[in-house]
Amino acid sequence: MVRTQVQLPEDQLVRLRAKALEEGVSLAELVRRAVERYLLEEENGGYEERARRALEAVGRFASGAKDVSEAHDQYLDEAFRSLR
Questions:
Q1: Would the pLDDT of 4 be above 80?
Q2: How confident is the model at residue 83 (pLDDT cuts 50, 70, 90)?
Q3: Can you give the pLDDT at residue 58?
Q4: For residue 31, which of 64, 7, 59 has the smallest C-alpha distance?
Q5: Quick one: how far is CA 15 from the chain centroid?
Q6: 36 closest CA partner among 12, 1, 7
Q7: Nearest to 29 by CA among 39, 16, 42, 15
Q8: In this structure, are residues 31 and 6 in contact, taking their beta carbons and an 8 Å threshold?
Q9: Would you place residue 54 in the very low, low, confident or very high pLDDT band (cuts 50, 70, 90)?
Q10: How far apart are the first and last CA of the chain?
Q11: Is 65 helix (H, G, I), strand (E, B) or coil?
Q12: CA 19, CA 30: separation in Å to the nearest integer?
């Protein structure tokens, strides 16, 4: 690993230290995880690309059910039960 320095606003540092303590990891590990998550997100096109792809999928599939807008919670519950 390569050592580097990063300057953070005081409030971010306080929040990061609290999160690191909560998760039982070092501050450095928490920062590495955040950087990795950011890099993966950018490699996959970023938020805008993900949102664009999600919007493109809207309406592309038909379930055949006529009451999806009214009974979507029931359908989701049934779908998740089948995964167990």
A1: yes
A2: confident
A3: 80
A4: 7
A5: 19
A6: 1
A7: 16
A8: yes
A9: confident
A10: 41
A11: coil
A12: 8
> CA–CA separation, 66 vs 46, rounded Å?
35
Are 16 and 31 in contact by the 8 Å Cβ rule? The answer is: yes
Give the total residue count for the chain: 84
The H or E element containing residue 51 is helix 46-57
Pull the structure tokens for residue 12.
Answer: 């971010």
Tokens found for residue 78 = 């049934």
Can you tell me which residue has the tokens 């979507």? 72
Which of helix, strand or coil describes residue 69? helix
Specify the amino acid at residue 3: R
The CA distance from 71 to 3, in Å, is 54
